[in-house]
Amino acid sequence: MIRLLIGVLFLAPFVLLSVSNLDPMTVWFVSFDWHVITGKFILAVTILSLLMGFFLGWIGELRQRHRARRAEGQIRSLEKEAVELHKRITQLQTEPSSTPSETSSQPPRN
């Protein structure tokens, strides 16, 4: 919603500029040329630039989301491992300690 508001606020001066400039002009690129109204040309370039900026921002956001999902997956696996380790620790603490073998308590035979 904020992006839309910023986009509208950004486009408003260019719309006013395009409405006030109705003179035709010749635009050329390499060997191609065409006649367009200055205001429409300014508005078209502005809209195209804005869309390209939104697209590039969206691509960056997708990369961030991918990294966040991967990090969340690592966190989940580490939490599971920590729970398993805590279970093992409590299991080892609750088991009775094994007594030394009874052979060591007997006197050595000659």
Automatic annotation (TrEMBL):
Entries under Pfam families matching the protein: LapA_dom
Biased composition (Low complexity): 93-110
Residue span(s) of domain Lipopolysaccharide assembly protein A: 21-81
InterPro entries the UniProt entry points to: LapA_dom
Spans through the membrane: 41-60
Organism of derivation: Saccharibacter floricola DSM 15669
Region (Disordered) location: 89-110
Protein name: Lipopolysaccharide assembly protein A domain-containing protein
UniProtKB keywords: Cell membrane, Membrane, Transmembrane, Transmembrane helix
Upper taxonomic lineage: Bacteria, Pseudomonadati, Pseudomonadota, Alphaproteobacteria, Acetobacterales
